[in-house]
Specification:
Layout lengths: L6 H11 L15 H12 L10 H8 L1 E2 L2 E6 L6 E3 L10 E5 L21 E5 H7 L3 E2 L4 E5 L9 E7 L3 E3 L5 H14 L10 E2 L11 E2 L2 H10 L4 H14 L4 H4 L2 H7 L12 E6 L6 E6 L7 E8 L2 E6 L4 E3 L7 E10 L11 E4 L9 E5 L11 E6 L5 E8 L3 E2 L1 E2 L1 E4 L2 E3 L10 E8 L5 E7 L2 E8 L4 E5 L10 E5 L8 E10 L15 E3 L7 E5 L4 E6 L5 E8 L3 E3 L6 E8 L4 E8 L1
Parallel strand pairs: 6-9, 10-11
Antiparallel strand pairs: 1-2, 2-3, 4-5, 7-8, 8-9, 12-13, 13-16, 14-15, 14-17, 17-18, 19-31, 20-21, 21-24, 21-25, 22-23, 24-31, 25-30, 26-29, 26-31, 27-28, 27-30, 32-33, 33-36, 34-35, 34-37, 37-38
Helix pairs in contact: 1-7, 2-9, 5-6
Amino acid sequence: MKKQFTLLFSLLTILVFGQIPAGYYDSASGLTGAPLKAELNNIIDGHTEFSYSQVWDQLKYTDEDPNNSNNVLLLYTGWSYPKNDNGGAVTEWNREHTWAKSHGGFGTTMPTGTDLHHLRPTDVTVNSARGNLYFDNGGSQYSDPSRYGQSGTFPTGCYRDGDSWEPRDEVKGDVARMIFYMATRYEGENGEVDLEVYDGIPSNGSDPLHGVLSTLLAWHNSDPVSAWEVRRNNRIYERQGNRNPYIDHPEYVQAVWGGTVDNTAPTDPANLVTSNATSNSLTLTWTPSTDDVGVDHYDVYVDNVNTYTATNTPFVATGLSANTNYCFTVVAVDAAGNSSNDSNQACGTTLDSASPGSDCANETFENTPASGSYNPFSWTGDNGAIWNTTNSRTDQTINNKALVLKNGVLTSPSIVGGIGSLTVKTKRFFSGGSGSYDVAVNGTTVGTVAYDATEQTVTIPNINTTGSIVVTLSKTASSSSSDRVGFDDLSWTCYATASVDEESLDTLKIYPNPIKNGLFYINYSKPIHLIIFNILGKKVYEKQHVANDVIDISNLKAGIYLVKIIGEFATTYKKIKIQ
């Protein structure tokens, strides 16, 4: 987990909380494999037990937000929620069993079901989305529609498919070390369940097995122990009286499970070409890389700036400016963070932009995957960019193939040209009533579209938002969560008010990125207001009247940051990485 705190906080963590009790692991010295695992069990066995109701107060201490003592930090999202807004409401946090309690059937029984080392605060609906899925890479990104204190739909950085859940990168190692702890602490003694890590997806979900071992080993290697984990481990020791040995001694993971450190980089992507130009996108194809373990993703560089993350080829680069030449390279990255060399460079030019009033988007859902059950999935839409849904199926028709949501969310790609008015066909399928879905543009609700048992075409006029936009559709609070609502022929018109010679924030460049010496350059001729946030959402840098400037952030630690750029007519965000 790569959370970045201030230097003062890190030093206080080490000085006040960071001491492992003297002699705690002495009896494990020199052991490997099963004997080491057995001895670690002896060391951490027999801890202080809490009831499931007592866990609420314990988590308020162990997972307290270091930047706001009134809040807790949520595992899968990193969001900070008020401590006392816990329970079962969709905008509250609840108690997530990282080792899913159904995998072994221990439920909320002490000690397994109430062990603080694997119980974590999570957003209620994010917890529900994870369910009892195993841990592995892949799937479609999960976006949450009910974040505390905010409206809109929020990407979580987590991915899921039918049997697995991939947490955001910042906590992959945390998750792995919690699973390894559980498999070490619970060995079937004293009537407790015997938990084991499994290298695959178990065929019987009630078996006391969790996976996927090889993926968890890779996550442990790629996401090292952080100050946050050390702090939490020490706080649990204060309350529960035992420790997670894989946080104190990360090398024990390899010693017990035989995992090896992956130092082999993927092969270089080859034969990169651009095609299918639109006014705001270009399609990239290349020969995929190979790796001794497996390629995790591809970093896509635009004019030498790391701009996109792709999981496979082809990939559609969206959010581009019209009638502009772009040059791309692609780098393959494995789960351990090893990077290939750059691919060859491929350049392409986008088409002229659409004029205001013409269609900027027109999605028929004809390219959606065939699905007769409710699942999240992604597809390449009619405009050549990636759309995403949650809890959806595609076996019903309105005008040919329709998308049906059951309390799900539809998220468009980022599309330039703004939005004037939006039009969509709706129809409720199967049984149910009437209701509506909220339409949000860049997270702000702009209107609703109604549905009932008859097909209808609904238009929201005068939305009038400029720049790059993302449109989401999600159920209104008053509508039934059991209604199955179909959508088809979704389109919106372009909207622009700025003069043709006005410079767009889309042309702003930040380089180099990743940043290696604490300095980066803003290539933009008009004054902007620059704000940088860390992954906890805390502002760590601010400067106004920036224009073609060198920015010095050498005081910031390595990690991922979000840059908010405020121009005269628009606001945009970019991601930077400090090495």
